[in-house]
Design goal:
5-stranded antiparallel beta sheet, disordered N terminus, single chain, elongated
């Protein structure tokens, strides 16, 4: 049977790869002595320590995954001062995975005994499997392997095969042209069975978008070049849908032909969550930009509106102060009727009350004109002749000519063939456009 051929082939070189296998599985494994010194720790365990380096562990935990409150009890139990039964061996805690996300991990701890069966350390297992019985079963397999390793006994193919087959992450071994082995987790993740992969090239499951890139990375790894051991990439499931895989791969030395041993974990759900989060963040950034643009536009419109209102207010105040109040004063001076004088006085006071909170700043073109000259300018703009202006202001024609001359001088119109009324009309149109 073809499956049997694969198992026989893998078992043939598993003993020489045993240290690699514990180094590649995703379960964190650590053996410590009474002082907390590591006797053995695999790469996954060290990855956990690195991933959680900025958490509470460095300060709060004096032994791996043990808080300071339990430290004395652990030490006393190892010295035989208190029964070991008082210390819990299984618990679940939330840790940061090497991939960067937080997950629930089971921590299983058991006393490690010397040749005389005296407790002289602790063996830890940190795994994504949180079912207590399954964790205990996995621990037994790993414990058997550690025992064989530390006592210089020969490795057990059966033990190692069980460890590989029952790993929670997918494991596969490939050469340049062939897939040699996949475990049960790999079958569950990808949908491909052991029989399926016999007829497939190593890169057939990689998504077409990255097929050439991943193939090139694999060929470079076979050449012994320094290629990253860890990466994330899309694959194609057997049923055709896209899955995202977290891959950790190493070149196996001493095998002929050269082979790559890889761990794969399905991170599709995590990628979906990350993509949804990125999409939401992009939408929020877009909304923020639109709000900023709208806010800017509103500020511009509000500024324009305020300018228009300010200009309108100033024009009204200016006209009242300079073009209305002088005539009110004339009416008041020439009126002989007492009641008319009272009415004029009331109008005058009310107008003063309106304009008193404001100050009119004349434009630079008219800032130097006197009140009487401003009256003349206003009448000129209305099309009044010099004779008409003289009669309205009760002045002589010569006086009006004098005022007109001074106005032209202050407006820099002396010796220029420019009609005063035309100039004033043009200046007013420019003010309105600005």
């Amino acid at each position: 049977m073809k499956v049997r051929i694969i198992e026989e082939e893998i078992s043939g070189y598993l003993p020489s790869l045993s240290s690699r296998l514990l180094g590649l599985i995703d379960d964190g494994i650590c053996l410590v002595d009474k002082t907390g010194r590591e006797i053995f720790a695999n790469q996954a365990y060290r990855n956990f320590l690195i991933a959680n380096a900025e958490s509470e562990f460095p300060d709060k935990f004096v032994w791996p995954w043990e808080d300071a409150a339990k430290f004395e009890d652990i030490r006393d139990s190892l010295d035989g001062k208190i029964p070991a039964i008082h210390l819990p061996s299984f618990y679940v805690c939330r840790l940061k995975s090497p991939g960067g996300d937080y997950r629930d991990y089971a921590v299983f701890r058991k006393y490690w005994h010397d040749m005389n069966y005296n407790a002289d350390g602790l063996l830890y297992l940190i795994t994504l499997e949180t079912d207590a019985q399954k964790v205990i079963d996995r621990f037994k397999v790993i414990q058997e392997y550690i025992s064989a390793s530390t006592s210089d006994l020969s490795y057990s193919n059966t033990t190692m095969q069980t460890l590989v087959e029952k790993s929670l992450c997918g494991i596969l071994i490939v050469s340049r042209k062939q897939i040699h082995f996949v475990n049960e987790a790999f079958e569950q993740i990808t949908g491909y069975t052991k029989e399926d992969v016999l007829h497939m090239a190593p890169w057939d499951m990689v998504h077409p978008d990255v097929h050439d890139k991943i193939r090139e990375m694999g060929l470079e790894r076979f050449k012994g070049k320094n290629i990253t051991d860890y990466y994330q990439t899309p694959w194609i499931h057997k049923d055709g849908h896209k899955i995202w895989m977290e891959v950790r791969a190493v070149l196996l030395h001493g095998t002929n032909p050269p082979k790559i041993l890889a761990n794969v974990i399905d991170i599709s759900e995590r990628r979906k969550a990350e993509e949804a989060l990125e999409k939401r963040e992009a939408e929020l950034r877009s909304q923020s930009r639109r709000l900023e643009e709208t806010n800017t536009a509103l500020k511009v419109l509000l500024g324009q509106r305020n300018d228009e209102m300010e200009e309108l207010k100033n024009n009204i105040l200016f006209n009242i102060e300079k073009l209305v109040m002088p005539y009110i004063a004339e009416l008041e001076a020439f009126s002989t009727n007492i009641r008319h004088k009272d009415y004029v006085q009331i109008i005058k006071e009310n107008l003063r009350e309106i304009i008193s909170p404001h100050v009119r700043k004349l434009s630079s073109d008219y800032a130097s004109l006197t009140s009487k000259q401003i009256e003349v300018v206003n009448l000129v703009k209305q099309g009044k002749t010099t004779k008409d202006i003289a009669e309205l202001l009760c002045l002589s024609k010569a006086a009006i000519d004098f005022h007109r001359h001074n106005i032209r001088r202050k407006l820099n119109l002396i010796q220029k063939k420019v009609n005063l009324r035309t100039f004033l009309d043009i200046a007013e149109q420019k003010d309105r456009k600005s």
